[in-house]
Sequence to fold (307 residues):
Amino acid sequence: MPSKSSNIDIDAIDEVIHGRLRLGIMAYLSAVNPASFPELLSKTGTSNGNLSTHLSKLESAGYVTQEKGFAGKKPQTLISLTETGRDAWIRYLRAMKELLERN
Amino acid sequence: MSNEQLINDLNYATDLAKSGQNAPLVGGPFGLMWGVLLSATLTSHWAIVSGTFNVSLDNLWMLWIAFAFVGSIGSAILGSKVKTKPANTSTANKVEQSIWQLFSVMLGTAWVGIVMSMIFGSGTPQLFDFIVAMGFGGQGLAYAHTARMSHNKWLIYPGMASFVACAISMALYGQVQLYLFAGVATLFTVVLPSLKTMGLENAK
Fold:
């Protein structure tokens, strides 16, 4: 079992957010809301399929919404951070801060 | 999960959040288009009123209607392009878009009030001189507010320049030179800042 001084108790952390890519998505959407799918692809540097998978997970939790529409004549998917998602993001950051301070 | 991995993930998230927060302003092309158009229109207004252009004063209506018409079409075209730009919805861009839209509403309502005063009251065309001063004052407010609400602190300088131009415009109220001054001041308070905004956007 890892010692408390070197590792962090992940139970206190929102598992939906805590994953490198989902963390990145939430962080970007906290500053740019909504963001287009290609914009998130470019910022996160991940693949199309991977981003879709993680966005679906965040969407299932009610943290983001995906809205399909058009930008001019081009189809565009806009991803928005919901109020629930913003609250969860703030709670997540608070929990991380507390855990890091405890360690 | 190790501390090292966690810190690594948090750094990644921080970088993404910062890239969103520090996203460049995307409204430069709007400012450039309106600035060039406004400067040309104000200077033409001065040329007509001062007699430099030998045309009837009745053409002033046509001049300003053409200004509004060309500007509206230009805004519609640029708007569709700006909508697709990355970080168009960052907080700084939202603040900038919102304040310039409200600025347009302010000038529009003042314009309607002056026209009503001229039709139903005792208003004279000289009342339009107020709009010039209001325009510079509103610009100053828009720049200064965007500077305060975003990382674009340099916008405070065109903001202050706009406030100075507002004061000078009021001092020139009723004088023909007001429009020549406004045409030149627009180059410095709208066109140059817009070019800088576009330069910063391209640099990112």
